[in-house]
Amino acid sequence: xxxxFCKLFFTVFVFSFILTSNPADSADGTYxxxxxxxxxxxxxxKTDLPRVREVIEGTPAENxxxxxxxxxxxxxxxxxxxxxxxxxxxxTRGEPGTTVEISVIREGSEMPITFNITREILKxxxxxxxxxxxxxxxxxxxxxxxxxxxxxxGKK
Length: 156
Known about the structure:
Distance between the termini: 11 Å
Number of helices: 5
Shape: elongated
Order of helices and strands: HHEEEHEEHEEEH
Structural class: alpha+beta
CATH class of the largest domain: Mainly Beta
Number of domains: 2
C-alpha cells in the first residue's frame, strides 16, 4: 500500500504543475507586466484562426466587447489565418496606450465585427481563475488518497 500511495501522490504532484499552469504563460514565454488586451487564445482547428478562450475581467478586451468564442480574423488589417498563437499574441501586445484594430467573426453575425482596442498594462496572471480551481481539485484528490490510506491501515 505504501508503494501505491507514493505513486498516487507523485502522479497528483506532477499533474498539479500541468493543471495549475496559466495558458497565457505557455503561449509565448513572456513574464511580468506588458501592454495587452486581456484575452486568452486557443487555436480553432476548423478555421485556422485564433479563438478567444477567455476574456479577462476588467481588461480592455472586456471593455471593448470581445467575447469568449470570438474568432479573430485580423489585426490591423492583416489576416491571422494559419498564424501561430505566438505570432498573434505579438500582434495584440505592444506599448500601453497604443491601439490595435481587431476584426472578429462572432457566431450569429453575418459580417465581421471590428474593434479598436487600446492596450493597457496587464499582469500575466490577472483574472485567471484556473489556478484556484485546479488547486482545490488537487487538494481534494490528496485528501481522498490520505483517507483511503488510513482506512486500509485500519483494516490490518
